[in-house]
Write a structure and sequence with these properties.
The first copy, chain A, is of the alpha+beta class and 171 residues long. Chain A contains six helices and four strands, in the order H-H-H-E-E-H-H-E-E-H.
């Protein structure tokens, strides 16, 4: 019984390690980490980004409950929206993902991927506010980072999908 | 029966939390992390839950010494009972487990299992108050989370067993 | 009328919080700090409350730049909106004011007033997250606290005025 | 108008300063601060102490809603009970009062009284966990401190009265 459990764990871990590359385009390549910072996203624009996330989260048969945060390039909160009945823990996680994506200028998926390997354990020592879970994405407009968005409440990859729908509204 | 349940929990938890299979709709059904929040458990009800935990902990030949915490759906403390001669460290752990179970709407066993693998190291970056050790369980009444219970002081699996006895008194 | 109300609030708050007149039953009636908690305000409702605050802040010749936070009865964030060009420090202050108003079930003006006197210095020892500045107001619907709103960015009394405009939309 | 307010503040402050000596026996004299520590209060005994507090809080026409904490001589939590509909902020305050009373071996009223004067502002620098508000009382049995009780939720002097009813059950 414990062995079966262990086996499941291993399988799950392997699946997890291979997930990003297998199911999604290689994010790091697409998003170079030296995109320059621009001025902050406005609050009204942030509200529109979040609206797109909420629509994505509600698309049937989905019924994801998400906390959604938009931060400025420094990681300070610009806009926050907690869908009703979202798990309470997601408040800080969404804000943390957005902050991480803005301050490190990369999707939080990157840190998640690194931490899937033992060699990546050091990531947790970099910054106590770093959240290494998918669902944080920089918002890039005209080649400049104007902020970032963070989503939490569903599974990490779902958080990422919903967040991406919001990020896609910024060009 | 408890073993089978336990195994299912482990597998579901690993799959769900490692993000390995975000597209597999089966996982949420096995371990629904989206149980809606209801109003807080009352203090007197919480006292009854704890009474059941204490009875379980004392059942011969057991002689577990536990700190036991009951929190509301947001993770704020409702009731706390430290059995005499419990290790002092267990105070914060019990409260942390209960808080984690309430705010993440799942047993802390789920996080413990994920962190058994290198791929699960990222869990420690999600929330500084997250306690990834068995012994935190949501309290669900009529399909709504009315709080959570956390136990600490024995081995993690024993904490879980004792806590479950308390959780079982809520339906 | 607003002035009279404001004065009554001040007097009631001072009397109540300084413990000067514990035996005077009149104080609770004037400022009932024991309004029961209800279920959390919804996100969409919170957005409407904030909209009213923003309109109030922009009413010419005003041009107040505010960070505005709405929290649930436990003080967890439901909605946040930072008007463009608001001072960065106001983010945490707005959230802190809302949290204080929800968790203490009273306007933060009450704590500000008490701390205007040397005798009120003790207030700063009550809770490290307490913000004793005007601009945090409970949101009461049908006699129950469904959350609170916090505003920061202008002068404290202006923050309060703007916040009150939002609170007035909840009955 | 502002002047009237200021006057009220002054009056309230004066009342507050004189409260302890005018309405209550001088606590410091009754409770020397060098009472030796004994073994910790048991959990069941703590539960009885809290029961007495709850009864006191409910005595008509009172209807105080209190968070009640009992700690051991080191200030670690032994028992906690939050009466339904207590303000959320009182959780940490009750625990803080109990901890302060145990670790400083004196009623928190003592710190409150000192902080009523400008010369007492230094108290807030002693220990970040010190709570200088009435309602924390050491529990002394046979001349030894076996713990402390802290109450929060009503006005400070009411918290003190309720707590004292609990402390009186320990001799």
């Amino acid at each position: 019984m414990p062995r079966l459990t262990s086996l499941s764990l291993v399988i799950a871990a392997v699946l997890a390690v291979t997930e990003a590359s297998a199911q999604q385009p290689a994010v790091p390549e697409q998003m170079p980490f030296d995109v320059p910072y621009g001025p902050s996203i406005t609050a009204d624009r942030a509200a529109q980004v979040v609206q797109a996330v909420v629509a994505e989260a509600r698309r049937p048969p989905r019924n994801w409950k998400l906390a959604i945060a938009v931060v400025d390039p420094n990681g300070d909160l610009v806009y926050f929206y907690r869908m009703d009945q979202t798990q309470h823990a997601s408040n800080n996680i969404a804000i943390g993902k957005a902050r991480t994506a803005a301050r490190f200028r990369r999707p939080t998926q990157a840190f998640f991927d690194v931490m899937q390997t033992p060699a990546g354990a050091y990531v947790s020592t970099l910054d106590p506010t770093l959240v290494a879970s998918p669902g944080g994405i920089p918002l890039v407009e005209g080649g400049r980072i104007i902020g970032a968005i963070g989503c939490s409440g569903a599974m990490g990859s779902q958080d990422h999908v919903a967040c991406q729908a919001g990020a896609n509204t910024v060009r």
